[in-house]
Amino acid sequence: MNEPIFIHSDVGKSISSIKSLGFKVDTKNLQQSIYDFLISFAKKDASRLIFPAFNYNYGNTQEFKVLEDEIEVGSLPTWVYKTQKFNRTAIPFYSVLSINELGIESDNLINPFGEQSFFQKLFEKDGKIFFLGAPFRSNTFIHFVEEMVNNGPIYRYKKRFDGKIIFGNIKKNVLFEMHVRPKNTFLDYDWDRLERELIENNLLKKYKGLDQLKLIKARELFFYWKKQIENDPFYLLNDFSKEYMFKATDKGTKRLELEDFE
């Protein structure tokens, strides 16, 4: 895979930017217009494009129907899956779309942000994250960084979601585990500050100077946030969440446990 591009998109908010770059926009098929722009951006190599295909029902059903479950993160990935030759990874919650086989195994314990995940491959291949009209807070790479630093975030706890992956008539039992948001607590990230700091450090960059089109290299983001988290395990959180979690973790000395919340 040549330098993958992971795309978080909001079609409506990106159209004016695409127009300003001189791309024709078909008002009857905005998704096609955006996709054509992305093909051009990827130097006509569609295999570089990766789209989120997230679906959050698995937490309730413990079943992920790869071919059938709705993509819940926008119209562009949905359109791509229905009209282009993209495959969906068999990873509950955080599946992605790609043309090439990503080599993500689901035979062992699945962690969607672990060492065998798509996000690890995005890091290894020196990929880019492209915010195409989408807000910076859509950046799920944040959970990969959390997972890889200090044995996972101290303010989340591990939870098992063992279940089934269903691909047509084929059913497969899977083991699944990830760090989750503590139940009945307030936890959020300081997205505005995080975005501002990355821009100030020339890591998050506007494409062609356009506010609605922003890019960042996955490796650069990883190492910048890794350094900050190693100095302050609550670095990513907003002030309210940081204060709450500082107390909940006994001043950062005790990891949260599932038994304390569920």
Distance between the termini: 41 Å
Helical run tally:
9
Shape: globular
Class computed from helices, strands and strand pairing: alpha/beta
List low-pLDDT spans: none
* Beta-strand proportion: 15-25%
Largest sheet: 7 strands, mixed
Number of strands: 12
Strand order, largest beta sheet: 4-5-2-1-7-12-11
Average pLDDT number: 95
H-E string: EHHEHEHEEEHEHEEEHEEHH
Helical percentage: 25-40%
Descriptive tags:
262 residues; alpha/beta; 7-stranded mixed beta sheet; 5-stranded mixed beta sheet; 9 helices; 32% helix; 21% strand
Summarize the structure.
With 262 residues, the chain is an alpha/beta fold. It has helices spanning 11-20, 30-41, 58-61, 75-83, 118-124, 141-148, 191-200, 218-231, 239-248, and strands at 5-9, 49-52, 63-65, 87-88, 96-98, 109-110, 128-132, 157-160, 163-167, 170-180, 205-207, 210-217. Helix 1 (11-20) crosses helix 2.
List the helices and strands and how they pair.
Elements: E1 5-9, H1 11-20, H2 30-41, E2 49-52, H3 58-61, E3 63-65, H4 75-83, E4 87-88, E5 96-98, E6 109-110, H5 118-124, E7 128-132, H6 141-148, E8 157-160, E9 163-167, E10 170-180, H7 191-200, E11 205-207, E12 210-217, H8 218-231, H9 239-248
Parallel strand pairs: 1-2, 1-7, 3-9, 6-10
Antiparallel strand pairs: 2-5, 4-5, 7-12, 8-10, 9-10, 11-12
